[in-house]
Design a protein that fits this description.
Mean pLDDT of chain A: 88
Mean pLDDT of chain B: 85
CATH architecture of chain A: 3-Layer(aba) Sandwich
Order of helices and strands of chain A: HHEEHEEHEHHEEHHHEHEEEEHH
Distance between the termini of chain B: 28 Å
Strand content of chain A: 5-15%
Strand content of chain B: under 5%
Oligomer: heterodimer
Shape of chain B: elongated
Largest sheet of chain A: 9 strands, mixed
Number of strands of chain B: 6
Radius of gyration of chain B: 25 Å
CATH topology of chain A: Alkaline Phosphatase, subunit A
Number of helices of chain B: 25
Helix content of chain B: 40-55%
Largest sheet of chain B: 2 strands, antiparallel
Radius of gyration of chain A: 23 Å
Number of strands of chain A: 12
Number of domains of chain A: 1
CATH class of chain A: Alpha Beta
Number of helices of chain A: 12
Chain lengths: ~425, ~525
């Protein structure tokens, strides 16, 4: 029988108010149990997705470069990457010269690229387009993220605090749900509840008093459920993460960049079996309206090197078969550059998938440079088809319920 | 502009709460006026050091024996709720759990939290003597308020305002110690609305200059501010105006001006974005100052929002301000900032009328918001999640802490609000997005730093504070913190948790725990879910 957290605390307080008695099931689970749950996931699916958000609108044309197409050089002018500098994947396209690390993984067959990903009637607003991508909803009706809906569907008994984990200051919309609080970690050192430094012995009792305080707030009060559930998840996950951090030995040398540090934190949680099914990290700065060449090269270097180090670490821990890394950005850039050595907001772009379970290659279809719509690329692959692939082949759950309708998955894992 | 006219009709609340509250607050105010006395000090320490403190229900009888004021009557309690039932899932719009604030003192507390950064005992003394209506005028007509104490205080701290940390410290100090709280609150509003970031401008005078621009025009007419910020160096850098050239216009500023700063999505086309970008060509920077580069400007005819002409940036601003979408967008945003999200059309309609008839006066709109029944309704009262800035500045201000501000640097950053470096051009999302597992831990760790501050740079002295409030026992201390920090709205279930914890401290510390007990009390009141709300 399931008990609410409130009920549990009431009874445990009478016996012994100790943290060892903290509940493993909290109250949202009661609601989740009555709604649909997935049952056991397909055992051949890797089970864990790591999302890398490239925020600001990554210039897809200068990431996966159609270096054999003269129209690219005509349209892009000085921003076009010279043929000789591109890292060729085949006779037609190649990677930006800053992505050598990912090129190596392409050569090993562990990198898939889905080209021309977008959606109908594209928005040129960062915020609207990010909302569309993160909610998987073109009309803005969903309040949950596309992965938040997945957390809500997980079986109620799976109550590890780390089903999802975001690294950064904010919990991205993609992982939000009204029922499941997702731990959001910025720094391990600060991810714990501090006590009075003069009385360290009292720290645990004080923490218990805080938890009791949040559990005692009247359920009808504004934001009471959000605050109580978040406090509960924060405390339990902080204890788990501190233990994981103490036990973790990195299996790769990570670059000293914010994205690499963030992915390293996810590696700590994954390799210590904290139950992470979806991890999320973000790198910003892709809104290259001006001075694009240097900025974009630095961003792609950071992305490529961090992803490669993370993959190597997973491999060293023998966990590379369980995890797939996916990148996305809210849109690509305008095909023609502006006068500030930059590009304005555009449309479709490529998504990267990295992992041992991945069947390397190019997927989707290439947007033609001779059939632009109002100066922008026409998308070839709906992003919801990519999400269907993630649900069915990576997370191992049916996709229709999550997306509202059937989208045909891509054979990224050779399934 | 006329004097403020606050609606006086009583909003629904039980007579019992009102009676209890009236007595309670008048008591606390009287008590505050008594100030420090040696006798009170002795009795407070003695009372705090007594193990197993008197139950709150019988405190009235025992307190009459001491020379200190009588304990306030027990607060009105609600029927305890059944606690075994699981909660429903979170709803997007919070349902008010508290009645509307129908006591003038509570309304003043509400006003100062939203139009300022909370209230100290001194504020309550000053503004309850003035009354609510005069307090609104005081906040709005801040030009006549002497702020020289703040200037002196800032002059005594050595700061280099071209550096991010120093600049944050400078602004946070302003917010804590200003006598013009609404002006600083508006600067915070503009910073989150007409964003720019240190990350893009780099070290230099730009973000400080922009901050002073917002202060100078905090309640000015909006067309004046839009035209001024279109020329502001930080903005010119942030949204690439400086490289907007007629050869191939850069759309960045043009798009965000309409989407985020004035009209909102859906009121213009992609063609309008491109045409407006042409109008702003040539608006750039030279020698760190605004310059109009005639060679880069497109002097040809533009078509913008159904109008045709040889427009420049100021023309675009005028056309945008005249558009009905702008009045609606700005009044909604201002109302949501001060009162609550998703306001009803009938709440917004008079505001947009005022915006237009006053020549886009922000002051007129804000005055109307702060005097509206909606602002004092149950829907507005303690229903917003405090921003990190509200939380940090509010704690320092309410507790009247003394600091040079160094300890405040970076504090809001780790709770998700890096002043002078918003996450993106739309500013901070706010609301529920302030709360995640990491930011909630940092909020609690922040109030822990405050409650346990025992050093010179940052000192919290609970005994001194309580004596100023005329408090002489731990039970009263709980009441007093709940009054000062929570308008007295701490739920009964939470009070019991606090009392149980205080009792456990007696076991731990015996008769030597007064200081620790009071610090724990302050910590737990500020750690409470209610304190996270404004």
């Amino acid at each position: 029988m399931l008990v609410s957290r409130r009920q549990f605390l009431k009874s445990s307080m009478l016996v012994a108010p100790t943290l060892a008695f903290m509940p493993t099931v909290f109250k949202h689970a009661v609601a989740a149990a009555t709604s649909e749950s997935f049952g056991v996931r397909q055992t051949n699916a890797p089970g864990t997705l790591v999302v890398v958000q490239m925020a600001g609108g990554n210039d897809g044309l200068n990431t996966l470069v159609p270096y054999a197409d003269n129209r690219y050089y005509d349209l892009r002018g000085t921003l076009a990457l010279p043929q000789g500098s591109v890292l060729p994947l085949d006779n037609e396209v190649g990677l930006h010269p800053s992505m050598a690390k990912l090129k190596d993984l392409w050569d090993e067959g562990n990198l898939a690229i889905v080209e021309g990903v977008g959606y109908p009637n594209p928005s040129f607003s960062h915020f609207e387009s990010m909302d569309i991508w993160q909610s998987a909803d073109l009309d803005g009706n969903f309040k949950e993220g596309w992965l938040g809906r997945y957390f809500e569907g997980l079986q109620a008994t799976q109550s590890e605090p780390f089903q999802g984990m975001a690294v950064g200051r904010e919990l991205p919309l993609a992982l939000r749900s009204s029922k499941v609080p997702v731990p959001t970690v910025q720094s391990v050192a600060r991810y714990q509840l501090a006590g009075d430094p003069r009385f360290p012995d009292a720290t645990q009792d004080r923490a218990q008093a805080v938890l009791n305080l949040f559990a005692a707030s009247p359920p009808g009060a504004p934001y009471s459920v959000l605050l109580d559930n978040t406090m509960d998840a924060a405390y339990r996950s902080s204890v788990a993460l501190q233990n994981a951090h103490a036990a973790y030995q990195p299996g790769a040398v990570y670059p000293e960049t914010p994205l690499a540090e963030a992915l390293k934190l996810l590696a700590e949680a994954i390799t210590n079996d904290l139950g992470v099914k979806v991890g999320h990290v973000s790198i910003g700065g892709f809104d290259t309206h001006a001075a694009q060449p240097d900025d974009h090269a630095a961003l792609l270097t950071e992305t490529s090197e961090a992803m490669a180090a993370f993959y190597e670490d997973l491999k060293a821990h023998g966990r590379d078969g369980d995890v797939v890394i996916m990148t996305w950005s809210e849109f690509g850039r305008r095909v023609t550059s502006n006068a500030s050595d930059g590009t304005d907001h555009g449309t479709a772009g490529p998504m990267f998938f990295l992992g041992t379970p991945i069947k390397g290659g190019l997927y989707g279809g290439r947007p033609g440079l001779s059939e632009l719509g109002d100066g922008n690329l026409r998308f070839t692959t709906d992003f919801r088809s990519v999400y269907a692939t993630v649900f069915e082949q990576i997370l191992g759950v049916p996709s229709e319920a999550m997306l509202g309708t059937r989208y045909e998955p891509l054979p990224l894992l050779g399934l | 502009m006329g004097k403020s006219d606050i609606p006086t009709e009583s909003l629904p609340a039980t007579q019992a709460i009102q009676d209890a509250g009236l007595n309670r607050r008048s008591f606390l105010l009287r008590a505050g006026a008594l100030g420090l006395s040696a006798l009170a000090f002795e009795s407070l320490l003695a009372a705090c050091n007594t193990p197993n403190p008197t139950p709150i229900a019988t405190a009235t009888a025992t307190a009459t024996a001491t020379p200190t004021p009588t304990v306030p009557p027990p607060r009105a309690t609600s029927t305890p709720r059944p606690t075994a039932t699981p909660r429903p899932s979170a709803t997007p719009t919070p349902t008010p759990a508290l009645p509307a604030p129908d006591l003038e003192l509570t309304r003043i507390g509400h006003l100062l939290r939203r139009a300022g950064f909370g209230a100290s005992q001194a504020d309550y003394n000053q503004f309850s003597a003035m009354g609510l209506s005069a307090t609104v005028d005081y906040l709005l007509d801040y030009e006549s308020v002497d702020n020289s104490d703040l200037d002196r205080r800032l002059a005594s701290v050595e700061l280099d305002l071209t550096r991010l940390g120093d600049l944050q410290q400078w602004w946070l100090l302003r917010m804590v110690y200003t006598k013009r709280p609404l002006q600083e609150k508006m600067v915070l509003f503009w910073h989150g609305h007409l964003t720019s970031s240190f990350k893009r401008t780099g070290q230099g005078p730009f973000m400080h200059t922009q901050n002073e621009l917002f202060r100078a025009h905090a309640l000015d007419n909006y067309d004046v501010l839009v035209k001024a910020v279109s020329r502001d160096p930080a903005m010119l850098i942030w949204l690439d105006s400086q490289s907007n050239n007629k050869r191939a216009p850069n759309e960045n500023y043009s798009r965000e001006l309409m989407e985020l700063f004035t009209m909102g999505l859906g009121n213009y086309t992609e063609v309008d974005v491109r045409e407006s970008a042409r109008a702003f060509t040539g608006w750039g920077l030279q020698q760190r100052k605004f310059t109009f580069n005639t060679n880069a400007h497109d002097y040809d005819t533009k078509q913008f929002l159904g109008k045709t002409g040889n427009f420049d940036g100021d023309d675009i601003a005028d056309i945008i301000l005249d558009h009905p979408a702008t009045a609606d967008f700005m009044c909604r945003k201002l109302f949501a900032f001060f009162a609550y999200d998703d306001p009803e059309p009938e709440v917004i309609a008079p505001l947009t009328a005022t915006f237009k008839s006053s020549g886009y006066s922000i002051k007129a709109v804000v005055r109307e918001i702060l005097t509206s029944p909606a602002f004092y309704s149950a829907k507005a009262y303690r229903t917003k999640i405090k921003s990190p800035t509200d939380l940090v500045v509010g704690a320092f201000h309410s507790l009247a802490l003394e600091t040079d501000g160094r300890a405040m640097r970076g504090m809001t950053d780790i709770m998700g609000q890096s002043l002078f470096a918003p996450p993106n051009v739309s500013g901070w999302e706010g609301g529920e997005a302030w709360i995640n597992s990491s930011t909630l831990l940092q909020r609690l760790n922040f109030v822990n730093i405050v409650a346990t501050a025992r050093n010179q740079r940052l000192q919290f002295d609970p005994v001194k504070l309580l004596l100023l409030g005329g408090i002489s026992s731990p039970e009263e201390a709980l009441d007093y913190f709940a009054f000062l920090l929570l308008d007295g709205t701490m739920p009964e279930e939470e009070r019991r948790v606090l009392q149980a914890y205080l009792a456990s401290l007696d076991d731990r510390f015996g008769t030597q725990g007064a200081d620790e007990k009071l610090r724990s009390l302050a910590y737990l009141v500020m750690a409470s879910p209610e304190y996270q709300l404004a």
